[in-house]
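Let us practice reading a record.
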Amino acid sequence: MKLLIVTAISSILLLLTPLADGQTSSICTKNSQTPCLNQPVEGKTTVSGNAKSGASIDVKVDGTKVGSTTAIQAGTFSVTVNALKQGSTVEVDQTSPTAVTIGPITVPAAAGTSSSLYTLGLAGINATATSTSGPKQQYFAEFDLISPLHWLGPACYKKTADGTHEDEIYPLAGRCWVWLNPRIASAPEAGSTALSSLTSSASLTKGIGSQTIGQITQTFEFQGGLDYYLIKPWNGALFGSNDSWARSTISLILGGGSVTPFSATSTASEFGLNDNLGQQFNQSVKSNQKPSLPTLFPQLASALCNFDFTGSSNVPCPSPAVPGATTVAFVFPNRSRFLRDYFGGIRLRTFYFQGSCSKQTSASPDDSCKPTDNYPGTFDARFGEDETVTGGKLRGVVMTLTGSYPVPGTSGALRIFGSVYLRLHKNQNSTALVLVPSPTFTSLDQSSVVVQPIQPSDQDYFRLGVGVDLVALIHKWYSAK
C-alpha cells in the first residue's frame, strides 16, 4: 500500500514538472507512453521499463552510467544493477531511435519495512489513583498513529533534485507530523494482579481476553494533535553501540481531545457505615467546621443517625432512630458533554535504528543505518486545561507528564508507560472520611443503600501500566510466515 501511494504521488509530481526538449520523466502505468521507467524501489537489483523494440537504452544510478541494453521485441528492457539504495536517483537515456531522457527518479523505501514504526497498538493493564485514593486497576486498548505532513509547505520539508518531497523518500527527514491516540478502557476497580502475569505478552493478552466488549469499553478517550520537530528525527542526537542505535529529538506539540465519563451508577463506590463515621460527623458539628460534614453530605448524615450521629441544625435525627441504610454509595452527576482538554508543550521522541549508524555521515538516511520496526519512545511535558483534573470544568493550568517506552530485550513487543496529571494550584486540605469499602456491591435500588451525590473530583491523579504492542507481534508473526 505504501509503495502504491509513493508511486502515485511520484507520477503526479513528474507529470507536473516542466520538461526540456528531448526530455521526459515518466513512470510506467497502464496507459503510459513509451519510453517509460518502472518505479525503482529500495533493494531492487534491476532497472526496467518499456521502450520500442530495438531502442538503445543507457542506465545511470546517482549520475554514473551502470549499464546499457536494447529493448527486446516485446517492448521492454531490463538492466542489472547493484541493489538500489533508498534516496538514490535513477536515470534512463534512450539514445535511439530518438533521444529521450527519463528521470532522474528518486528511489523510495521498500514497502512494508516499517509498519510498527508509525503505528502502536497497545493492550494491557494499568493502575490509576488520585491524590487521596488508593490505586485501582483497569484493562485498556489503544492505538498511537503518527504520519509526516509534507504538504503543509516549505517549513515542513525540502525538495530533492527531482522535485520530490524529501520526507516522501525519508519520512524521518520531515519536521511536521500529525498524531492520533484513540483509547478504550474498562472501569477502574479495586483489585490486584500478580506481578508474574506482567512478565510476558502471552499472560497479558490472556488477562485482556477475559474481558467482555462491554467491560473494556466503559470509557472512550481520544487525543490528537500536531508535532513540529525543532530537530528532524533523522538528525537527532545519536547514541548506542554495536548495531543497536537510537536518535532522540525534540518537537513542539499542540493538541487536544476528549474522554467519555464513566456511567454514574455502574461505577458508584460503596462503603459500609460505622460508628466512627457517625462520631466524625458529630465532631464536625461541635467544632463549627465550615462547611460541616452534614452540610456537605446530607443524605449520608441522615443514614448515620443509626450510627451514633446525633444530628445537626440542617439534618436532625429522629428519636428513636429508625433502622435504615447500612451502606453508602457515592454517585457523580450525569454530564451532557464529554470531558475535554487542550494543551501545548514539548515532546522528546526516541527513534530506534540498526546497522552501522556510528559510521553514517550522509545528511540523508542510507542502507547502512535503518529504522527498526519499533514505535518510538515518547516523553511529553504538556500545559493546558483538562476537565478530568479540575472538577469537570476548564479552569486553571494543568501540567501533564506522560511517557511510553519499549522494554529492552523485547524487540518492542512489551512497553511500559505512565502519566501524571497535576493542576498548578495551591494545595487544599479536606477532611478524610472514615470509610471502609463494602466487600460486595449492592444494587442502588435497595433500602440498605443510601445514595449520596457528590461533585466531580478536583484532584491530581496518575496512571501507570504495562502493555503489549499487538502491531509489532502481528508484524513479526506475519514476517515469519
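A brief commentary: The two ends are 19 Å apart (CA to CA).
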